[in-house]
Design brief:
single chain, mainly alpha, Ribonuclease iii, N-terminal Endonuclease Domain, Chain A, Double Stranded RNA Binding Domain, 3-stranded antiparallel sheet, 12 helices
């Protein structure tokens, strides 16, 4: 895969080409290519996740000096999640550059939400190591901040769990409850799937990199369905 095309697309030439390639090596690829000398991208993803959180937090703190901590947290959560990061990855075409196993490829790995979201973070981690915080900030601003503006303008940052609780209590006099249905992946990059229930009825599911984010995704899906329940 010609990663030079990606460098040209984002306007940044890597000094360390191995670092760039590592950002796109999925764990599954190494199972079929044991002679590959480079590691998979999960350590870079770990780093990129922290870099992303810091830069977005710094931006929000400076951009919204009068907003309380709770609102800033909701703003950040609305942009630093698998749904948005995978969307941006698709816009950048990052999935096209992934090194995947044949099995992962055949089952749609290049389009899978959590893989695309993780790839955005691993790529960001590589940018940070290769070029530093300023280039990382430029990359985030050019790819993510526009989405954040839309989210805040349209008030899409609201706490979905709180909204669902208000709706379900007023409509059914029932408080939603959440249950983790599955956990996948190694500890530092685990994916949680959570179900939200009204009484004992499963209303919706959601996935995320933490229990909290998976609950929010489940609540968001539930809000789209609750209006149809009689």
């Amino acid at each position: 895969m010609d990663l030079k095309n990606l460098e040209e697309k984002i306007g940044l030439e890597f000094k360390n080409k191995d670092l760039l390639k590592t950002a796109f090596i999925h764990r599954s690829y190494l199972n079929e290519h044991p002679k590959e000398k480079l590691p998979h991208n999960e350590r870079l993803e770990f780093l990129g996740d922290s870099v992303l959180g810091f830069i977005i937090s710094d931006y929000l703190f400076k951009q919204f000096p009068k907003d309380p901590e709770g609102d800033l947290t909701n703003y950040r959560s609305s942009i630093v999640n698998a749904r948005i990061l995978s969307k941006v990855s698709k816009e950048l075409g990052l999935g096209d550059y992934l090194f995947l196993s044949k099995g992962e490829e055949s089952t749609g790995g290049r389009e899978r939400q959590y893989i695309l979201a993780n790839t955005y973070e691993s790529f960001l981690g590589a940018i940070y190591l290769d070029s530093g915080v300023m280039e990382s900030e430029k990359f985030i601003h050019s790819t993510l901040i526009g989405h954040l503006h839309d989210i805040i303008k349209n008030k899409l940052y609201k706490d979905y769990k709180s909204q669902l609780q208000e709706n379900s209590q007023s409509k059914f006099n029932v408080t939603p409850n959440y249950k983790v249905l599955s956990e996948k992946g190694p500890d530092h990059t685990k994916i949680f799937e959570t179900g939200v229930y009204l009484d004992k009825k499963l209303l919706a599911k959601g996935s995320g990199k933490s229990k909290q984010s998976s609950e929010q995704e489940a609540a968001k899906s539930a809000l789209e369905k609750i209006e149809d329940i009689k």
